[in-house]
Amino acid sequence: MTKAVYPGTFDPLTFGHLDLIERGCKVFDEVVVAIGVNPAKSPLFSVEERQQMIANHTQHLKNVKIDRFEGLLVDYLHGKGTNIILRGIRTVSDFEYEFQMALTNRTVRKDVETVFIMTSEKYSFLNSSLIKEAAGLGGDVSAFIPSDIGKLLKERLQQKQV
Question: Does domain 3-121 sit in CATH 3.40.50.620?
Answer without folding.
Answer: yes
